[in-house]
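Working notes for the structural subgroup meeting. M.R. asked for a predicted model of this chain before we commit to crystallization trials. I am recording the input and output together here so anyone reviewing the notebook later can reproduce the run.

Input as submitted:
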Amino acid sequence: MFEHGVRPQFWLSLIVAFIILGVLFVVGWAGVSLFAFAVFPPLGMLAVIGYPFLVLLFAVGYLLSLDHLGGLGVGSIKWINVSHPFVERLAFLASRVHVEVPRFGVATDVDIINAFTYGIFEPKVVVSRGCLENLSEDELDFVVAHELGHIKYKWVWILYSISTSLFTLPMVMPTLVYAIMLLVSIPAKFALYWFSRECEYLADREALFAIGNLRAAVTALVKMELQLGEKGYNKTVKDVLTVDEYERIVEFTRTHPNTGRRIWELVKVYREYNMGSELEGFSLL
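Returned structure, recorded in token form:
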């Protein structure tokens, strides 16, 4: 299922997410059904049958919306055509990751180093103008290959679509049901954050195997993190590579792992799979 393997924590995070989301589903199903039955028994029977279909309807709607609304909030996106010089490179990276060549665009209004992918039926990769201006060719390869890794395992978006419907539905439920589901949704959110972080490690691993260049992977991640310095932070490369207890705690509330942990995980994978005779220039960090 996973060509280059995953961290053991990936499976644990997936199991925990499924269990908690299952509890959230059962609580919502039971709560809505009991409330509807108390108001009008036939309505309760309708709720018992209809709630699962409502969850499924919301989930499918969310998946469909990804293809069209995923790029909102980043300003103008310039989509490249077949004549663009990067198309050949994109095709090579896609072949390395073993995915179809996606649509590729540049967020021309975003000057920080960032990238994202969206779309379940027509996947799209978008990089910021900052990526093109501040990353070397090899570093850009890593960033794009990372996004291609997300596309390779896009089945995980089904889990997110179900969770989105389960988080959305309580907003239109009776107050008591909403209050109970709100309590369950908090651990569900943290479980999904954990799973999301493991997916980031997975995409990093795919990208490293695609480009085989640890140095480019590390410097791309460092550049992405150090750009925070422009927003009032005073970080150095040493700060990026150091993971203190505060960052470990804060990480629980984030969808992405700490950059230092991502880097050390890449080093671990590079060594484990003997991908090179030495850590390519890693000592310069």
